């Protein structure tokens, strides 16, 4: 569904190669400044590569017009404007503007909006101004707008950042269900344990390069955690749930510049 072919965006990304398939939650992990946001923006067609290309459904996405991109890829940035003067439903309806730029929505558009509101548990809040929502509710509204686009690919930059654990788990569980329905879901995520639990695959970036790619249990080795994240940590199997967990012992000294 997405093919990243020797992608470079100098000086941030270098020689990124990967093929991402539908039906998966793919986690982008790495320390601050590793290039996660830049890679997501390149996959969304918002950045023109210095070299290489990102192909979406066989097409070089940066060469296509915005409406074409929006019908195939829904991108959620890490930060939204603080003041969005719309009710939840109005905000979610904006996801249909790539289909009807005039804003005159038809029955099919309203069905997509209704399904997105329902999928994110927002039907009861659809008439509430975004300014009155909690942080978790606001993030669910932002994801609902992405869903309303009807795009088969969701690219989400830190969708659970700054949320309490209830909303973190709620959103990740919903994202897994969207992948199970056949979408490709790519998320930048800092919480390594949640990446282990909810991602089918992880791409680990370090200094703009791909340091590891594979299932979380193969990526999060003690050696990689030490080299990339500068922590002494080891994965283990939770005896109660059977889930993989990480045991963090200590932060390691930073490597001198």
UniProtKB/TrEMBL annotation:
TM regions (residue ranges): none
GO molecular function terms listed in the Swiss-Prot or TrEMBL record: ATP binding; ATP hydrolysis activity
Record's keyword terms, sorted: ATP-binding, Nucleotide-binding, Translocase, Transport
Keyword Nucleotide-binding set for record: yes
ABC transporter domain span: 2-232
Protein name as catalogued: Iron complex transport system ATP-binding protein
Originating species: Alicyclobacillus vulcanalis
């Amino acid at each position: 569904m997405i093919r990243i072919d020797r992608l470079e965006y100098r000086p941030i990304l270098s020689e990124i190669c990967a093929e991402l398939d539908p039906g998966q939650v793919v986690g982008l992990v790495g320390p601050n400044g590793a290039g996660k946001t830049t890679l997501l923006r390149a996959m969304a067609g918002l950045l023109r590569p210095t070299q290489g290309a990102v192909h979406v459904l066989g097409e070089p996405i940066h060469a296509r017009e915005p409406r074409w991109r929006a019908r195939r890829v829904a991108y959620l940035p890490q930060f939204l404007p603080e003041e969005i003067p719309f009710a939840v439903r109005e905000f979610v309806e904006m996801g249909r503007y790539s289909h009807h730029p005039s804003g005159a929505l038809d029955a099919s558009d309203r069905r997509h909006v209704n399904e997105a509101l329902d999928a994110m548990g927002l039907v009861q809040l659809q008439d509430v101004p975004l300014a009155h929502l909690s942080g978790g509710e606001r993030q669910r509204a932002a994801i609902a707008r992405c869903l309303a686009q009807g795009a088969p690919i969701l690219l989400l930059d830190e969708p659970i950042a700054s949320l309490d654990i209830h909303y973190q788990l709620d959103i990740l569980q919903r994202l897994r269900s969207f992948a199970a329905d056949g979408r490709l879901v790519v998320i930048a995520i800092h919480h390594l344990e949640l990446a282990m639990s909810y991602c089918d695959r992880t791409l680990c970036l370090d200094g703009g390069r791909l340091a590891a790619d594979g299932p979380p249990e193969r990526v999060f080795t003690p050696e990689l955690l030490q080299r990339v994240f500068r922590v002494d940590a080891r994965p283990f199997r939770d005896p109660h749930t059977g889930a993989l967990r990480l045991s963090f012992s200590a932060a390691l000294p930073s490597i001198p510049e």
